[in-house]
Amino acid sequence: MNHTHTTWSRQTSFWVAAAVVVHTLWTSAAPAMMYPLYAHQWQLTPTVTTLIFAVFPVFVVATLIALGDLSDYIGRRAAMLLGVGASLIGVLLFAVAPDVTWLLIGRAFMGIGVGLSAGPSAAAVVEFSAPGKAKLAGAITTAAQASGLAAALIIGGGLIQYAPFPTRLSFWVLIVVLGATLFGVWRLPRHTPAESKKPWSLKVPHIHPPLRRTFLVSVSAVLSAYSVGATMLSLGSQIAHDLIGSSNALVNGGAISLFAIVLGITGIVGKRFGSRLSIIAGASVSIVSLLLLMLATKTHALPVFLLSSAASGACYSLLFMGGLNLINAHAPMHHRAGTLSALFLVAYLMQGVVALLLGRAATAWGLDLAIDVGSLALAALSLGAMLLAIYVRQPPSKADAG
Question: Rounded distance, CA 263 to CA 298, Å?
């Protein structure tokens, strides 16, 4: 059977796995620039627009609870094929949506797609990387997330502003990208040494007992990263629109995409950092970025918002990469995708909760007060991640965790 299945080289497989990581963030953020258009077109409140955002992490979480370690049993390739396929259905529903219901169903499919492929793609990037380069894999995963995010915001903003069919065309572009990614995944090796020989069964995500202290530190860091990301992705275009006073979607998308661009650059520069140093630095920058966001909403100053957006990208990158590298350094191969899926589960759950709470607060209190209260709460979360990284001791790692 394998004779008819032509597979990529290890290096090409590495980049295909990275492309699947790109899709997880591009798909997640694809509607980010559309929320003001949907709100105008269908007279939606911030509660409803953040609900469109929040349906996504809810379904990511449900998928991770049920199927988080699936790829440890059926293989990375099979799990990623299912994941990218589900994302493709979700994006197609957005491309043709006649009303909000279609968007909510589309977001559910996107969530299932990312839930099926987030853990396996992050694990595959490690497994297809050159021997001894696990830390580089963390940096590439972070940079791939940044690329997906920047593409969603800049391509989305540009097509909304300067092309026909503003609420549809960027989704058709993404459909072409996902089709190419699906082809790439199809030609990955069918089986890798990371697969467990036991049959898969439905079970609640479980953290291998020796990994629990590591997981606690790691999850607190990734939680903080995703919470800051949720603020930018669910309300960023609204904040940018209000602050910049510009109706140009490309300018607004560019302002938010500074978050993604700095995220990617920090991922490449910060790969030399040890995991704990990365988390401590990321948490510190996170607190600064949230204070700058509060100041930006008070003063309506574009330069302050741009600084906040850039600092948010840097903190997301450092926190996410620190948390990911900690798991990569300590998790045994057969537990890696399951542990990474549990990590993403908690992170996406928090992202959904943060987005919904911010949306409700913005509807009830106005955007300014919602940002103030949310920023203080998220700063406290970052402080917690920093303290855990400083005080919780790690067991010896199989690779260099820093």
Answer: 25
